[in-house]
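Example with several molecule types.
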Amino acid sequence: ETGVTQTPRHLVMGMTNKKSLKCEQHLGHNAMYWYKQSAKKPLELMFVYNFKEQTENNSVPSRFSPECPNSSHLFLHLHTLQPEDSALYLCASSHFDRGITGELFFGEGSRLTVL
Amino acid sequence: AQSVTQLDSQVPVFEEAPVELRCNYSSSVSVYLFWYVQYPNQGLQLLLKYLSGSTLVKGINGFEAEFNKSQTSFHLRKPSVHISDTAEYFCAVSESGGYQKVTFGIGTKLQVIP
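Resulting structure tokens for the full complex:
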């Protein structure tokens, strides 16, 4: 496989469920990101990992919990979500070298619906 | 803090007609500028980017954009659109010298009419 792969593509969950989104990149990048895309809003940066270390947490509620076990994999663990959390969650990766980020490469997204 | 304004939420245009999608940005420092495209049910893909040098930037699929520092704009243009250009287009900005944090605009939906 090439590029950035996200699974699952679609997820429906209740407010009391626990689920996880997975992202895998095959591009040799060392930085990975989670973005939230909601209708009529700009993309919201949620988390950034450089070399497996979290370097950005954009005031995201604790019901979203990221995990980056290595530079190729990124997870977003979800628990006790709210209906307003329904959105498209996009994973991206890039090179990161001496404080400079390269082009972002996005996955196709995971469409989350919270009932 | 940096911000991006995309003035048009939707732009309908007939096939083979020219199109311009507008983008204005705000930043207190020098910036890098990007246009991304999102086709239905897909992630975002880089169309073009301005880092430095020539203010006219050419990208994929016949698109180009011009950086205008005095007007803080980075409008996207194509002289003749195709049905396959129907997509959502996002302008983005980051501060030069450390563009880890990329700020996106709200997006412009381009609808090409046969």
